[in-house]
Every structure is written in structure tokens, then in C-alpha cells.
């Protein structure tokens, strides 16, 4: 349980001091009006923290910690358990400030990320299946060697993250609301402190994946509470419990906490990529996904800032995520239809798909296990459509021509195909 007597509640003075410390060490990222505002009832702005050198706002907190405790860290070194953003950020700023960094990554970490950390002179240790396993190993090394364990709930890390909130109000003094993705809660707590000080009328919301609702559960219980970590697209937000200092800072001050469905996170990734021309990971777009899902109707017509916290996604995962997003938007359709088992069967199907202006992505025929007559084969097809309306029109056309056609829809929430 969160004992207020033993936690640190972040102050604006600490955030202001952090801003001065890290002034020359981080990128002051742009705040851009989102192009999708033109097709929605919201006036959305994007704070593009994915444009930091290593691709996430974690750099701000790490830089502040490394500068504030530079002499100690140079002597002892730093060990960082992470699934991505903290690791690459610590490796980069450790190299620039002469601090030896050891990063501890789970087995499932993309090889490219481990390689990037190594190129930045960090020692890389691969350990455990989950972040919790890596954290336990890092704690053990910390006790044995005296290396400083980097904790995202550290007050200096939180203070550095608060500079995101300072920049938002400086860049857009008219901001009515800020939506913040929630991992350990440090970013949310720090942005809340900054916004409340600089513009008390600005609402601050938190957003997290509904599959790992650690902040929502903490708010309901009144103290940090552990939740199971279920794999999802917002991997960078996957922590089993929020930080004690972060929660103590947030408690009683947060305007709303939002739980976002994974399917809308997939849609948001596609939207940011296609409309905004930005690469962001699932964790990074969680704030925008909350708006797309319609969780904040009270913000219609108001200037709403969505923080895009990161863009550290490897190419193979990005490719899989794009396909998930297209499926969630209804733009990838999978269906099966019976065809005459002759030279005209597939030709006729291809012509129908072409006439409907859809793009065939794959086609597999099934003959051996078909239960109908021997003159019939089933074609399993995946096509891409332009939008929801095009998709529905295509379905209607196929069902009219093939009454026994079966469509499958991917439900990201239970990973099952519904027919």
C-alpha cells in the first residue's frame, strides 16, 4: 500500500530545475496540429516525443537523472532493466556523459534494439521472459555490485519528464486538455504537475491499454495494485504496477483515467503513419487512440494535446502491427467462397475483386477437405479495401454472388476469428 509518509510528491520547482539542466541535452520536439482534426470533431494537437534522438520522451528523465547525480553515477555505473525506451535512452545519454550503462533486456527484445544499445557502448544482458524477470536480475546485480538501479519512479526521472508538460503549455498556451499515455505513471504525474502550475484550467487525462489497467485499478483502490501483464500492442506501457511516487503525486488530482481497446491502438498506429506521416509505437499512440475510440466526447471542439511518447518499433513488429491495424479498420478482409473447380473459377473471382476496386493480397484454394461435391473448390482470400464503406459494399457484393461465402473478422481483444 502507498504510504504517503515514505513517498516523494513531485513539485513544480523540481520540474523547472530539470528543464534548466537538460536544456542542451534533449530535442525540444514540435507540437503540431493533427491533420485528422479536419475529419473529426476534435481540435487535436500532437506533441511528437517520438522525434527525440532515441525515439521517446524517456530521454528527458534519464538526462536529468544523469546530470543531477553525475559524479555518483560515473563512479558506480547504472543498470537499467527495460523493454526498450529506457534502455536505448540510457545507453545514448550514458555515452554522451561518460557514464557506464548496463541494460538488461528480456529474451523477446528485438535484436536490432540490443544492437543499438551495444553500439552506444552499453553492456547488454539478455535475461528472463518478462520485464519483471529482467528487473529482478537487475536488482540482484545492484545489491552485489553497487551499480545504481535506474527506476522510472525516481524523482529526478519524473522531474525530467515534466518538461514535456512545460513545453506543451509554452507552445500552446490555449491548450484545454492533455492526454498522456501511462506506463509506470511517471510521465502522467510530471505532466500533471507542470500543467496544473502553468495553466490550472487545463485538463489532464491518463490513457492506458485496457488489457493492463494498472493505473485505473490503482485509482479505484486508492493505492498502487499489481495487475497481470497481458501481451498487447502497447508493449511500452506494460508494467504490472504503477510507481509509488507517481501515484502519490497523481492521487486526487487527475481529471480522468481512460482505458483504450487494443483495436483502437492498432487504428491509431495506422492513422499516425498514413495521415501524419509519423512512425509511432503502440504505447506512443495510446492517447490518440482514446480520442479515436470516442472516450472523451466532452473534449469535442476543444484544443486537445495527445502526447506521442515514442516510436521505437522494429521493422518486423511494425509490419505485423500495420496488418493488425488494417484488419481492425476493416480494410483487410478475409473470406472463403466456393468456386467451380475449372479454369474459369478463379478467373471469375479475380474479375469480381477487380471490378469492386479491391486489391487481392493472398489466395489459397482448398480441395482435399471440402465436404461438398467434387466439382467445387473453396478459395480462401484476403483483400484490401479503401475504407469501411468500401469494405461493406464489397461484402454485400460477394454475399450476393456467393450466398454461402464466409467472412472472418479479427478481434484483437480475444485474438479469435469470428465468422
SS elements, strand count:
15
Q: Please report which band the strand proportion falls in: under 5%, 5-15%, 15-25%, 25-35%, 35-45% or over 45%.
A: 15-25%
Mean pLDDT: 90
Number of helices: 16
Termini separation (Å)?
45 Å
Structural class: alpha/beta
Largest sheet: spatial strand order? 1-2-10-7-8-9
Unreliable spans are 411-419
Radius of gyration: 24 Å
Helical percentage: 40-55%
Coarse shape: globular
Largest sheet: 6 strands, mixed
Molecular structure report:
This protein starts with 11 loop residues before the first helix and ends with a strand. The chain is an alpha/beta fold. The strands form 3 sheets. The chain has a 6-stranded mixed beta sheet with strand order 1-2-10-7-8-9, sandwiched between helices. The chain has a 5-stranded antiparallel beta sheet with strand order 12-13-11-14-15. A 4-stranded parallel beta sheet has the order 5-4-3-6, sandwiched between helices. Helix 9 (186-198) packs parallel to helix 11 (244-250) and helix 12 packs across helix 14. Helices cover 41% and strands 20% of the residues. It is built from 16 helices and 15 strands. Mean pLDDT is 90; it is low at 411-419. Strand 3, helix 4 (85-97) and strand 4 (101-105) form a beta-alpha-beta unit.
